[in-house]
């Protein structure tokens, strides 16, 4: 009788614990022969539902966007003699895939890397004067994007020794120490250059839809 009561108490206590501390994706995913990558996924598939979404005041956003259009963009347009891009649109799924693969490939290459030390550096950049030109990665980019302002996103890794965020290639462990050398010629991870492009050889994102000249992506400001 006593053992039965203890068993019931144990079950109730366990149920109460699970109710108060439900398992999440990080603790329930484990590596198995049929899913060898699941131990990596357990490190990067996180639930942020208990954190607030970052926000900015609407007036501040308008002020900053207008400030760029009325100052830097005015001078750029005057110098280039055409209307340069002032925004870029990306679909959310593409961004999620890119961020996922930065974490996944990095940990897969070196499982001692802490995902919290990873980041993105976004470079202001410009499309070549002619598209696609000599670059295979630009063959699907609209020709009217030539000479326009764009962005390139490069994965970064923060080293403990220096606390510096260095550009690196998650697919090449040789770049984990000193970063990407100036004479580096290999491709680095990136998002597809266009919706139709599935090329994942490069690990830097280059473009979504430039506004202007792209149509169909809408415009907020």
Note down, in words, how this protein is organized.
It is built from seven helices and five strands, in the order αααααβαβββαβ. The protein has 221 residues and is an alpha+beta fold. A three-stranded antiparallel sheet has the order 2-3-4. Strands 1-5 form a two-stranded antiparallel sheet. β3 and β4 (165-167) form a beta hairpin. The longest helix is centred in the first third of the chain and has 19 residues, at 2-20. The relative contact order is 0.13.
Q: What profile does the largest beta sheet have?
A: 3 strands, antiparallel
The low-confidence runs, each spanning 5 or more residues with pLDDT under 50, are 1-11, 13-20, 23-34, 196-207
**SSE succession:** HHHHHEHEEEHE
Strand content: 5-15%
Strand arrangement, largest sheet?
2-3-4
Using only C-alpha atoms, the radius of gyration works out to: 23 Å
The coarse silhouette is: globular
State the helical fraction.
25-40%
> How many individual β-strands?
5
Instruction: Determine the structural class based on helices, strands and strand pairing.
Output: alpha+beta
Q: Ends: how far apart?
A: 73 Å
| SS field, number of helical segments | 7
Provide the residue-averaged pLDDT. Answer: 77
